[in-house]
Design goal:
- The structure holds two protein chains of two kinds.
- By secondary structure, chain A is mainly α.
- Chain A has two domains: 59 residues, no CATH class; 172 residues, Orthogonal Bundle (MetI-like fold), CATH 1.10.3720.
- In chain A, 75% of the residues lie in helices and 0% in strands.
- Chain A has twelve helices and no strands.
- The longest helix of chain A has 35 residues.
- Chain B is 81% helix and 0% strand.
- Classes of the chains: A mainly alpha, B mainly alpha.
- Chains A and B meet through helix 1, helix 4, helix 5, helix 6 and helix 7 of A and helix 1, helix 2, helix 4, helix 5 and helix 6 of B.
């Protein structure tokens, strides 16, 4: 227990003095992480009611999930929309971030604020507005409509990631390339892009997840055979506690954890 | 001879300046797809709702949708609930988030990166999944009630979900990262030398914390709290699931109006009020923060 008497910082405070902080932080972190992950063991229960720990272990609810055409179709839709959103939003957001950063035009600050609005306007308002507007042009229940709306939600996040990457990068390198005869486009692709590629991958994953996890717009705008996983999950949650959701949740947690660890790994490689 | 050279330079300068402005414009043009997408998905639809909110039943201009909000008790109750839930969630997040951010900021870089995962993991996990997890944990025969009863904390199962308690627990869990991340950022910017100077001048650690450290984290805390508060105002999923119909917030009522009455005017008006409230808070806060920066010096 000598550790407790060691100084925690260069001032006089010892680890013992800070013990309360370590305990409080440990409890908070426990409450942040465990409630979500406890669903995973529960999903392997054989019972109709969710128990922890399960009395009889089984993959019953996974079978229900994988054998249900409704859940399978919704999963395919969600993944499809997620990937398409990523493919649309990543170049769109990266281009916009680069444009506003490199141009230095008077209007770029205002434009940045404008492009960030999807983060500020309450999503419920966007959802009903888009639902109404799509009703007029026949885009409700289409993959295209959902991807477009999700791409707009993802763009600000992508722009923020890319802009912070550009801040750590010296744009003069592009000028050097151009003074040596490269065109603007070539300078971007050969000099800038390779140096911000890790941030682009991170932002792309963020874009996928934004769409994959999105609930409210999906509730309104997706439907029929193009209903997303989250739409069906939300409907199931409002009615009763369906253990199938625990199985689906487990799969979703695994996906998001994998993506997060991937970004952390990328971050470590960057340094 | 001299005159003509300087004249030529002046001309060149002008030409270069023009070229630069042109290039800036061309670069801005790259943002066109994003701008068009935001116009299509945000500006037009929200503008349309704005227009609908001023249409009366007869199709002409009217304020009846807004008048109803003042006259009907159910609207007042919704607004009160919305503000109540948002304020309480923000306070809970500050009380829980501050010690956590402080703990993370004190750690050496590598450990901080590891423990930061505790904040980032929930942040990256679907909000629906997290809401579901709380629903399972907090229900009458759920783990929390079972556990508390087995160690004798309470005798009969408490009602922890489908009410305000459940909503607040779920919302605080979901909002916490939005507070911790900016707060952690502002804590990391504080120069350790300031703390040494304070203790060198005779301040006790507690004094040094409240006089030096805490004021320097105020801007991060205000920024984080604002994000939490504004996000709470428009929140839909968690109150709808964990509130079980008893916690009616603005977003819940908007969908209820559309589902039950299909009244676009009323739903739009409620949405417009929500947007305006959000905007006022954000604008007021940015003004306030500037004042803050002027008072305490740039951070």
């Amino acid at each position: 227990m000598r550790w407790l008497k060691n100084p925690a910082s260069d001032t006089q405070i010892t680890h013992g003095d800070r013990l309360w902080l370590y305990i409080v932080a440990a409890i908070i972190m426990f409450l942040l992480v465990v409630p979500t992950f406890i669903v995973m063991p529960m999903s392997f229960s054989d019972s109709q009611y969710l128990e922890f720990p399960p009395e009889v272990w089984s993959t019953r609810w996974y079978n229900v999930y994988f054998e249900s055409s409704k859940w399978m179709r919704a999963t395919v839709t969600s993944i499809q929309v997620g990937i398409l959103t990523m493919l649309v939003a990543t170049p769109m957001g990266t281009l916009a971030a680069y444009a506003l950063f490199a141009s230095g035009h008077r209007a770029s600050k205002a434009l940045f604020a404008f492009l960030i609005t999807p983060m500020i306007v309450p999503v419920i308002l966007v959802a009903i507005g888009v639902f109404y507007a799509y009703g007029r042009v026949g885009l409700n229940n289409t993959i295209f409509g959902l991807v477009l709306a999700h791409a707009v939600l993802a763009t600000p996040l992508i722009m923020i990631v890319i802009t912070s990457a550009l801040r750590n990068y010296d744009l003069n390198q592009e000028r050097v390339a151009r003074s040596l005869g490269a065109t603007r486009v070539k300078a971007f692709f050969v000099i800038t892009l390779p140096q911000i590629k890790f941030s682009i991958v991170t932002s792309a994953l963020l874009g996928f997840l934004t769409s994959f996890d999105e609930v409210i717009i999906a509730i309104f705008v997706s439907g029929g055979k193009n209903a997303t996983l989250t739409k069906h999950m939300f409907a199931a949650l409002r009615d009763f506690i369906d253990p199938t959701i625990a199985a689906i949740s487990t799969i979703m947690i695994l996906i998001s954890t994998t993506l997060l660890l991937a970004t952390q790994f990328i971050d470590a490689r960057k340094k | 001879m001299n005159a003509s050279v300087s004249e030529g330079e002046g001309l060149n300068e002008k030409l270069l300046k023009n070229q630069e402005v042109q290039e800036q414009r061309m670069l801005l043009g790259l943002a066109t797809p994003a701008v068009l997408a935001v116009v299509a998905i945000i500006v037009i639809p929200v503008g349309w709702l704005f227009y609908l909110s001023f249409l009366g039943k007869d199709g002409g201009f009217s304020l009846e949708n807004y008048q109803r909000m003042i006259e009907y008790k159910s609207y007042a109750r919704t607004f009160v609930t919305t503000f109540q839930v948002s304020i309480l969630t923000t306070i809970i997040c500050i009380l829980i988030g501050y010690p956590l951010a402080y703990f993370l900021a004190m750690l050496p870089e590598r450990l901080a990166g590891f423990f930061m995962l505790a904040v980032l993991l929930p942040f990256w996990t679907s909000l629906l999944v997290r809401t579901y997890a709380w629903l399972v944990l907090l229900q009458k025969n759920g783990i929390l009630n079972d556990f508390a009863m087995s160690i004798g904390l309470w005798d009969t199962p408490l009602k922890l979900v489908h009410n305000l308690t459940g909503t607040l627990i779920g919302m605080a869990h979901i909002m916490l990262p939005f507070l911790v991340l900016p707060l952690y950022g502002s804590m990391k910017k504080i120069q350790r030398d300031l703390m040494y100077a304070a203790s060198n001048l005779g301040a006790s650690p507690v004094q040094a914390f409240w006089k030096i450290y805490f004021p320097l984290t105020a801007s991060g805390m205000v920024a984080g709290s604002l994000i939490v508060f504004v996000l709470c105002l428009g929140f839909y999923v968690t109150p709808a699931v964990l509130g079980g119909g008893r916690v009616v917030m603005v977003a819940t009522q908007i969908t209820a109006i559309l589902e039950n009455q299909f009244d676009w005017g009323a739903a739009s008006a409620l949405g417009v009020v929500l947007l305006v409230a959000t905007m006022i808070i954000l604008v007021a806060a940015t003004k306030l923060m500037k004042l803050d920066a002027a008072l305490f010096g740039k951070q």
